[in-house]
Amino acid sequence: MSIHILGICGTFMGGIALLARESGVKVSGSDENVYPPMSTMLESQGIKLDQGFKQEHLSELESELDAGEQSQVVVGNVMSRGKDVVEYVLNQNLPYTSGPQWLYENILKDRWVLAVSGTHGKTTTASILTWILEYAGLSPGFLIGGVPENFGVSARLSGDSPFFVVEADEYDTAFFDKRSKFVHYHPRTLVINNLEYDHADIFPDLNAIKTQFHHLIRVIPQNGLIVVNDEEENISDVLEQGCWTSLEAFSASADDGTDTASDKGWTAEYINTDGSEFKVFFDGQQQGVVNWSLLGKHNVSNALAAIAASRHAGVPAKFAIEALSEFKGIKRRMELRGEVNGVRVYDDFAHHPTAIETTLKGLRQHVSDKKIIAILEPRSNTMQLGVHKLTLAKSLEEADQVILFQPENVDWNMHDVIDALGDKASLHSNIDQLIKAFIPTIQAGDHILVMSNGGFGGIHDKLLQQLESLKN
Predict the structure, then answer these.
(1) Which one, of 326, 252, 309, lies nearest residue 114 by Cα?
(2) Which of 29, 164, 324, 432 has its CA 20 to 30 A from that of 301?
(3) 149 lies in the same domain as 186
(4) Per-residue pLDDT tens digits for 84-113
(5) Same domain, 172 and 287
(6) Of 284, 301, 324, which residue sits at a domain end?
(7) b/e 85-112 (16+ beta carbons within 10 angstroms → b)
(8) Which residues are part of a known binding site for ATP?
(9) For 11, phi and psi rounded to 5 degrees?
(10) What is residue 278's predicted lDDT score, i.e. its pLDDT?
(11) Residue 455 is assigned to a structural domain of this protein
């Protein structure tokens, strides 16, 4: 069997490629963005990559079909009608499917799927959950939209284990299937971290997203489990549309960490207000104490959700709590990229005002009154459309200095955000000039938080190089 993946260098489709290759499938693929690190990782696994989307890239697959082999095109959701290669697949009647459908039919259908959904925290929670299962000796398979440091890869088959953790995205499946990806996964264990408006390029409003989440709830078996954030009213709205599965709720309590645990569901009692140490309770009974490297209320929520989900798979809470002390984090989630002269540079995959706000609050509680410089590239589709422009300034309030970068394809007026933040904010459209404008003011003990869901022009390395030059 062979597949050719259109859009292979995306995180999700690249993960599909790795799983297919590991399961014995011959894999090739094409993309317009064939460059490291994804390209080198895939090529190291013997996966042939083609630059661009051209019909000639399908010639080998067509020869295999002519020889009677089971081969098909796997279409990423980056593809749309009108692209030459898509029209060629349809005109030639080549067999094709979506990434999520291929994943279910070839990997997930006979496994215990633990799916992690929500607007924020999917990658972190899925990574924590996977590590807990690994720590407990359950050797799960996984497909995650990031690279957990405990594993070093974003996907793994683990064919001998019944358990498979998948990051369950609400984005649409393909040009021919406008359902959310996650409805294909048929999980037995489902986490819903939170639910806010996002993906404005495909969803007209929040209710449209709620509808997709309810479609997901409709396929969870009665003997499964849905783990839900008790602080999220939008999740309650979805559940009120109908739920046929047992629920367990979690709550990370107040931002200041002063609340004590309630007697219902999974809750936390903070020992350190930055979220680095906290007690875990279930139905009012203490299960243990987490002491780990992650920060912030949002990560306490992520931990509680993962502990609850792993317990459904048979891992006692005390073992899950032990596992968290050895969790190493995820690349691009508050990842420390380097420290020069006492100045720390972090990389965070920020894409939504709520995620920006919670990340900054967690860092603030950790560093106290040290200076935080937030550098933001509004790169997600929703950000670029200006949907969150009214809430963006508030999400950045915890920073002492805010530097906004305006990409060429953002056509809404970011000066409104600057005006709302006052003198501590500035706007730039050139990365090198941005760095030169503020780097002379940096002092030992400062924390620079770079937030973008893209490469941001290599700004992290450029910052570290500039700091090194000042050192010399």
Answers:
(1) 309
(2) 164
(3) yes
(4) 999 999 999 999 999 999 999 999 999 999
(5) yes
(6) 324
(7) bbebbeeeebebbbbbbbbbebbbeebb
(8) 118-124
(9) -60, -45
(10) 96
(11) yes
CB 171 within 8 A of CB 351: no
Asked if 350 and 409 sit in the same domain, the reply is: yes
Amino acid (one-letter) located at 129: L
Residue 394 lies in a domain: yes
pLDDT > 70 in the chain, percent: 92
Q: Taken in order 302, 308, 314, 317, is the CA torsion positive or negative? A: positive
413 CB-near residues (< 8 Å, 6+ apart):
none
Containing H/E element for 249?
strand 246-251
- Helix spans in 115-251 (H): 122-135, 206-217, 233-239
The closest alpha carbon to 77, from 2, 16, 141, belongs to 16
Which structural domain range is residue 24 located in?
2-98
Rounded-to-integer distance, Cα 163 and Cα 159, Å: 9
- Could you give the number of structural domains in the chain? 3
Please, are residues 194 and 229 in contact by the beta-carbon 8 Å criterion? yes
pLDDT single digits (tens) 197-240: 776 777 888 999 999 999 999 999 999 999 999 988 999 999 99
Rounded-to-10 torsion of CA 317, 121, 450, 365: -50
Amino acid at 413: N
Q: If you search the block for the tokens 């300034």, which residue do you land on?
A: 393
Q: Domain check: are 143 and 283 in the same one?
A: yes
Q: What is the pLDDT of residues 13-37, one digit of tens each?
A: 999 999 999 999 999 999 997 766 6
* 362 Rama sector, left if φ>0, alpha if ψ -120 to 50, beta otherwise: alpha
Domain boundary among 269, 299, 324: 324
Return the CATH number at 440: 3.90.190.20
Residues 237 and 133 in one domain: yes
Do 367 and 405 lie in a common domain? yes
Sign of the four-CA dihedral 289, 320, 154, 15: negative
Distance of CA 282 to the CA centre of its chain: 27
Known binding positions: 118-124
